[in-house]
Amino acid sequence: MPFFTTSDGTDIHYSDWGTGQPVILSHGWPLSSDAWAVEQKLLADHGYRAIAHDRRGHGRSSRPWQGNDMDTYARDLAELVEALDLRDLVVIGHSTGGGEVVRYAAQHGAGRVAKVITAGAVPPVMVKSDTNPEGTPIEAFDDIRANVLKDRSQFFQDLSLPFFGFNREGAAVSRGARDDFWRQGMNAGLTAAYDCVKAFSETDFTEDLKALDVPIFIAHGSDDQIVPIAAAALKTVELVKHGTLKVYEGAPHGIFGAYQEELDRDILAFIAG
To answer: To which H or E segment does residue 116 belong?
Structure first.
């Protein structure tokens, strides 16, 4: 399993599968690159070089006290891309990872990034304010932080239900998907799991979105209970220059089931198009 060491001494784990045009996949909170395993194999099988990394503090990467903020996440990604000398690059991010790849592409990706794909992504900004009335109240994020400290194991088990929409009437619940969400969440360091809540909820990506000059495919489930679409994708598509929005009717936040199958087809089509 390869590791890359950032300029501040943090070891970032990544996997690198296949050959061809490079595609980097960035995971959501509190997960790891394992969340993208199906897509990584799919891309490699279709002739792409698929790379997925564990954000600092998550998965198999080291757990520094510092740097659990969006600027550092984007810088880590930039340093990995530069170390691997990736060009004509497609970046894909889910949830928090969507924010990471947008900031990376806007602030570091000139001359390297060809396309951006986000799914259930946090931009422009999640937290509710006078200028973002559709956002989520800060109290909800305070509750997340409190639960991470109080009993994160039980909290991650409980969170898996709305994450995948398994709390909806008639939903086909997968115990395995819930267990894997818990497993990945418990592999995140406590400091990163706590600090990343501020990073994904309070970071404003408005200027990053405006600065993007490459095509971006914006995927979002209409029934996303974690990152509600009204404050996210519906605003994002109005801010970017070359955006394509697809709303997946009834789809949750977690990439699973029929939503995953359709999204994966769309990812391949957008990259090839």
So the answer is: strand 113-119
Please count the other Cβ atoms lying within 10 Å of the Cβ belonging to residue 211. Answer: 17
**pLDDT tens, position by position, 80-122:** 999 999 999 999 999 999 999 999 999 999 999 999 999 999 9
Active-site residue set: 95, 224, 253
Give which of 127, 110, 124 is closest to 218, Cα–Cα: 124
Q: Which helix (H) or strand (E) holds 244?
A: strand 243-248
pLDDT of residue 31: 98
Nearest to 181 by CA among 158, 150, 147: 158
Which among 97, 76, 107, 87 is positioned nearest to 28, based on CA atoms? 97
Rounded to whole angstroms, what are the CA distances from 149 to 12, 85, 145, 155, 209? 25, 39, 6, 10, 33
Q: Which CATH fold would you assign to the domain 3-272?
A: Rossmann fold (3.40.50)
- Looking at every residue in the chain, the average pLDDT score rounds to 98
pTM, to two decimals:
0.97
